[in-house]
Give the backbone structure.
Amino acid sequence: VNEELLKKKKEEIELLNEELEIIRATDSLTNVFNRKTIFDQLDHELNRTKRNLWRIESSIKKESHINIRTYGDDFDYEPIGELLDHYGVFSLLMIDVDHFKKINDTHGHLVGDQVLKNIGELLKDKDIFRTNDVSGRIGGEEFIVILPETNVNNALGPAIRFMKKLSMIEFTGMDDCPFKITVSIGISESSPEDTVKDDILRRADKAMYWAKQHGRNQIVVYEKIFNK
């Protein structure tokens, strides 16, 4: 009886620790990762991508010894794109709510909080993003999404889906006045020259601010604007 009781108590403690870990990692308002956790995830993805690039380079050097396994008819469709379009690369979305201060000033902070909650819900919407995509709030009305094994061309798809779904949401402001919101999104993909997460963050942030400065409510890819 004592052993069963101890086992049950141990399971309860483990479950409680898991719940506390989730609370520590999550932004309480939007239910996506908080700043510290999403930056830790970004560090992890950068290191994982570097290792994948190293594996590719090592495999190419030893290509005469590679044993290729054929999967036959296991999958329904032919693969799209080259290997390096998916492997050894990831993309980052920087999302900022347009005119958020005006929303708070006009409709109040409770309505502003509801806007941010809805953004969080869309960032976890599996019709927009994949299960392994990771999103977080980095401060105020600003969010980032990490898209593993995705170049900027493929990153445009979820970014567009996100903006389309957001455009369908109608919020209720002061005096039951309906209004809609827009966002500006900057995208950049990882580079073999990236040494720290700030490298890709800086590019995505620069693309997002370019979108702000040129009319808002748009998606800007850093590599298409600044690397022409």
